[in-house]
Structures are given as C-alpha cells and as structure tokens.
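Pilot study result, target chain (359 residues):
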Amino acid sequence: MERMEPGRPHSLQMMAPWHRSFWKSFWFALLRSKEDKRARKFVLVILAMLVSILAEAWVVFVLPAKEGQGTFQVSLNGLVAATGLIAFFLIRRSNRKQGELLNFSLTGQNVRQFPEQVALTVQSYLEDRTVIVASLLARAAGEIYLASHELPAGAEVVTRQIQNSMLRRLGLWEKLDSAERELIIAADGLWTIEQRMEAIIWCEQLRLLRWTLQIDAELIPLAHSPRPDYSLAHLQLLTRESISNGKPLRASWDLRRERDIALEYAARIVAELRERSLIADSPELSDWTKQLREQSLGASVDYTAGSKTIGDLSDDDLRLLGIIANARAQYAGYLVDQLSAAGPVRFLEWSQRAMSSNG
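Predicted structure:
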C-alpha cells in the first residue's frame, strides 16, 4: 500500500459530498485556509463546484423562465441536465472500478480484492460484541457521571441492574470476557479512574463495529480529532434486531485503509509526545521519531486534527487523540483478520498473538 503523505487530508479525499464528514472537512479547511495550502486548495475546489452548480441551475431554470419559456420546456431542461449528471457519475464510477480491477490484475498493487465471504459465526460474533461493547460504554458513562456528580439524598442508581438484565435476556452474559464480567458486576460508583478510561477504547471499538456492520454510513476521520461519544451505545441497547439489518459487512479493504491511516497518526503522535517529554524516551524511539517530527512540522505539511495540526494540539488533546488512534489501529487490524477467519477469535487472544509475532 502506498504510504500516506504526512499531513495528507485523508478525510477530504475519501468522503463523498453527501456525507456529513465531507462538509465538516470543508469547515475545518475553511478555518485553516489562511495558513494551510492544502486547505486553501480544497476550499477553492469546493467553491468552484458550488459556483458551477449555481451557474447550471441559472442557465437551466432561471434564465429560460425569464425568457418566457413554458413550464414544460424548463422541466425538460432540468431533466436533460439531471440525466447528464447521473450519466457522468455512473460512467466515472464504472471507469474507476474497471481501473481498479485492471490495476489489481496486472500489477497486484491495488489494495482492493474480491469481497470476502464472511463466516456466519464471525458475523454473529461481531453483532454480539456490538451489544456487549455498547453495554460497557453505557455503564462507563454512568460511572463517569457518578464520579463527577453528587447524587441527591435517597436517589437510587440502577444502571448496573438494567445493563446486566439486558445482557442475560439477550443470552450474552456467558459471552463476556472475565475482565468484562468483573467490571459489570461491580457496584455502581466503584470503578477506578483506569477502568473509566477504558471508555475511550470501547467508544472507538463501537465506532468500528457499527461502521463494519453498516449501522453507520461513515466513520469519523481521525483528521477531525474525534472525541468519545457515549450516545453511540443507545441504538444497540434498544433492540438486538437493530444490528442485524440485512446489509453485508463492510469490505476488509476499507478497514485496512482506516488501520493504515490510524497507524500513521499514532506514529506521528508518538513522535510529538516524545519531543514534549510526555512519554519515556528510549533508543528505539530516538531516531525515527525525531526524523518523522522534522518531516511533519509545518502548517501545510503536518497531520490535521480538526482545525489544528498534531503539532498545535495541547498535551491533553494530543494524549487523547493518541489513545483513539492506537485503539482504532488495533481494532481495525483485528476486524480485518476476523472478516477472513473461519471462526471468531476474541480480541484479547488476537492481541496477545499479535504482540508475540511482533517480537
């Protein structure tokens, strides 16, 4: 796979205009356009596209109406324009698919391969994990609230009872890892800070699971500097059937792309953390982190994080994005392997194997 250029605005190139993330990327680019050449280019392209659409609408609809042409003629003009636009997108899509197939066939360099046949046991396992992780995230949200708020006298906390009853009703209690079971049977308000911090990782796992199962149409790019979102758990906690939506699972090449982007973000963040002495130094980190940071510094070069770059983030925001990027890279890699596996493998077991193979 081609290595991403440092600071390359991944989200701007991957998102389609009908996705919300595309226009969020446009807003961030607009905020950064003064000092970032990449952002200025993107903003100009989008503005040119909008001007072109408005000009076409003027020629097709407004101008004929002003010249006294009938409603039928105006509608016919609109139909012809719409047909041409649809044909353009269909031809472009067809050419892109043919080009990808030709490139893969002749060179073997294209990351896209023929879609996998995901084992039914794997798909069922991922659906179960979506409910379990959503339950853990919901419980973590309650624990975080209890740690930062004082309850009124006589108030009763029922989060644990609700979550545990749901897991038993859905037949998921026996599918919990031992560490997960210990957490959810603990009395409300007794989680440690470290246990509450797991919510960041669960949130990222849930994002990827929802995206892989096509519950969500898009995945928030790391370039948007995503934050923990506890509302992601709500849909899964309503009904188990809301997950089995009949859609095929997302292809592994999409997950590979997100994994690779996350790995690059994680590497850039490690380089920044080391420079700021926020992580322990070591000979293994010295050379490559210094070189990567020197290559990445600059408003028009560095990896973007919302309206800022990695180098501009505060220490706390840098740590948070680092946790999210690392969690996304690990879990996306896990899901890539799961989609082609003969049967389900627990994430903890997969992580231990990955660590052993890496030395």
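One observation from the pilot: Residues 10-107 form one domain. A full batch analysis is planned for the follow-on phase.
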